[in-house]
Amino acid sequence: MYRTLIFSFKMCYFKANLLKMRNIKTLNILLLNALDIYGGGEFFVYQLAKLLTQKGHKVWVSCRKDNIIYSKCIEEGIGVFPVDYPEHSGKSDLWKNSRILGKFIKENKIDIVHSNTNYDRTAGAFAAKFAGVKHVSNVHSFHSISHNLTHWYRNKFLIHHFMVDGVCTKDLLINEDKIDPAKITLLHLGLDPELNKKDPETGKLIRKEFGVKDEEILIGNVARMVPFKGQEYLIRAYPDVLKAFPESKLMIVGDGELSDMLHKLA
Questions:
Q1: Is residue 214 part of a domain?
Q2: How many domains does the chain have?
Q3: What does each of the 266 residues of the chain score in pLDDT, given as a tens digit?
Q4: Residue 162 forms beta bridges with which residues?
Q5: For residue 192, is it within any domain?
Q6: Are residues 144 and 221 in the same domain?
Q7: Are residues 173 and 243 in the same domain?
Q8: Angle, helix 94-107 to helix 118-131, in steps of 10 degrees
């Protein structure tokens, strides 16, 4: 899975037509993540930074200084460039931060900018354009990334390639956001089986704690309780599952803005 991830990242780089010489072996890469939380997207950026560094590339992660990803990168010896991105996915200081990123890109001779959230997707796009380098972006969530004219312009002219981890997300970008299919690469996220082995003893303890019998099928969901995670649809669909599999239970683990609503719905 890790080799596939690196290979696909490089393929996107080729598609962006940034590699002009076959003897280029290492890249200067700036990974962006503007959120003030540490969730799945931030874990992805951190893992990608580690893997690219292990492959010999020079990597910086630009993030908030109070995000866990900042300290984790420091511990791993990965370069960091802290920026005062707005809290709670805000929109403030977009052009100011874009100029800050653009200056960093030029000073450090960055070859490629890689963004991950809608804020840094925009700030990074204009920064990369200002610095004259290519920009690729990962889309981790199943919802539109085009909410205004600036986003439309960014998606069409300032992002050279998109990477998605699901067919549904790719279809959404094509059908709803009108992004050229040739600019999108589908890259399924995998799991390292050695790092994700089942622990039977832990499983027994969890089942005992929540009163789940050994013979019952336990369906689990672990995620932030926010709209684009889709727990609402899982809960609404579960009665049909229960009809087909009466000996089953659904467990949803997490917290977030939809917590109260999901508790009532369940």
A1: yes
A2: 2
A3: 445 445 455 444 444 444 444 455 799 999 999 999 888 889 999 999 999 999 999 999 999 999 999 999 999 999 999 999 998 767 899 999 999 999 999 999 999 999 999 999 999 999 999 999 999 999 988 889 999 999 999 999 999 999 999 999 999 999 999 999 999 999 988 778 888 888 899 999 999 999 999 999 999 999 889 887 889 999 999 999 999 999 999 999 998 889 999 999 99
A4: 137, 184
A5: no
A6: no
A7: no
A8: 50
